Amino acid sequence: MTDAGTPPVPHVLPDAVHQAVRPGTALLRLVTTHTREQVLDGAWWPRSRDIGAELPALVAALTEHLGPVLRVGLDADAWEELPTRLVIDERVVHIDSFPVGDDTVLITRGDQDHFSLLVVPPHATPEAARDAMARAVRTGNVAPAEQILIDTGTRRAHPVPVEQPRTDRERGER
To answer: Cα Rg for the chain, rounded, in angstroms?
Structure first.
């Protein structure tokens, strides 16, 4: 017997995530507290870098929990061909590009209501993705997105620039 006053159980990353998931399937966890004291409000694991394939499922899932999504802020360098808007479920969703890194996505609902989601890279293993998503929604979490990804081994190491041999002119010699 269920209590009519019981809030619905939020959709979380299921144990079946170990099965192959195709692009366009939203794998999403949201914070379940109403205080919003954490740095992040949830986590999203897209399965590709194709925003046209990935964003509709995310927006549909978020709309179910939060209401209509008006804007999405993303890092243009982290996605293939980032449009300025998409029509999702007959609503225009504006896409803003920010040079903030690909560790978060900013969701705007209403005029000033913003949500920040950790973006788990598509290349992450299911175990690492599950761990990163769980850490992002942990009560009292104050770790930045980048640190969560580093701690869970899902962030790719930045390439170390290889120093090329310099010519005499570049060394200031003649």
So the answer is: 19
